[in-house]
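Notes, p. 3: input format for complexes.
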Amino acid sequence: PNGHKDFVKVWCDGCYDMVHFGHANSLRQAKALGDYLIVGVHTDAEITKHKGPPVFNEQERYKMVRAIKWVDEVVEGAPYVTSLATLDKYGCDFCVHGDDITMTADGQDTYKEVKEAGRYREVQRTAGISTTDLVGRMLLLTRNHFRQGCSRFLPTTQKIMQFSDGKPPEPGDRVIYVAGAFDLFHVGHLDFLEKARQHGDYLIVGLHTDPVVNRYKGSNYPIMNLHERVLSVLACKYVSEVVIGAPYSVTKDLVDHFEVALVIHGETPAAPDDDGSDPYEYPKKIGKFKTVSSGNDMTTEKIVDRIIKNHKEF
Ligand code: CTP
Ligand code: C5P
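Output follows (314 residues plus cytidine-5'-monophosphate):
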């Protein structure tokens, strides 16, 4: 249908509250249908009116969407109902949404107008992940035994390939290494990765396995399993590569293998390794370690607290 157009602009919109890799995957598919992707994100007031208050405020939500690597532009405060006037205003050819129905407070399909005009395309929702599902997992945290496998998402190598850039560092690139849990990937992580990336050209993120994260976080952490955390981090535009199941301590082998120029950690405390040692002992010893402030005090635990508090209010 767009065979004659040489530049296709695509529109997506939504709440993008607690952004997860399901959202990222829909934006990836949308971008593949054209050349330029504009994402409209609703205000807190608009979301509150139609489906109740969001967990993250609009500034946080705008920032999270802007950092997804398939997004070219974010329109702040986009209307809840998608009109032809909005598509025309931003020069978009059509609107893309997942294959679920979105309703307004009074039961109208929010995409009725663009559907009738033939300016609507559908992409497949990612099965096994949603905000509701994540909230459910957080509420289960109150149980005090570690249970693995509460995720219903089925990770495949194909999904990892679709999310990955697959680009090795260019000759002369300065390689930065950071490691962590990156559970429920949030604005604090995002600000941290943005700052870390500024110290080099190629950013590698090491993700610890679920049992390792559970050892130092306790309770039922992590909320997202390793495969899910891999996709969330890969969707971030500052990230070049991910180590799937990185050793807790940054070893000489790892630094040599990836030719790491600098290892960075944020201002949050790093728990000691099994034997009580500092996980950054080696990079510190060779003068390749730096603490970088994200300037953001968001943590996974704070999100969980917000959810549990919100839940009690309803
Ligand atoms: N989306 C998706 N796969 C998911 C979750 C969301 O493809 N597992 C898509 C939606 O279909 C929509 C876009 O992400 O096109 C953003 O919509 P938003 O209103 O933020 O998402 P919700 O459908 O409310 O997502 P969730 O239930 O996770 O909050
Ligand atoms: O806690 P987690 O292992 O997910 O943190 C990953 C990295 O992000 C760590 O270096 C941590 O210090 C950093 N971070 C940050 N600011 C936040 C949250 C995390 O700098 N608000």
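DSSP finds 13 helices and ten strands in the chain.
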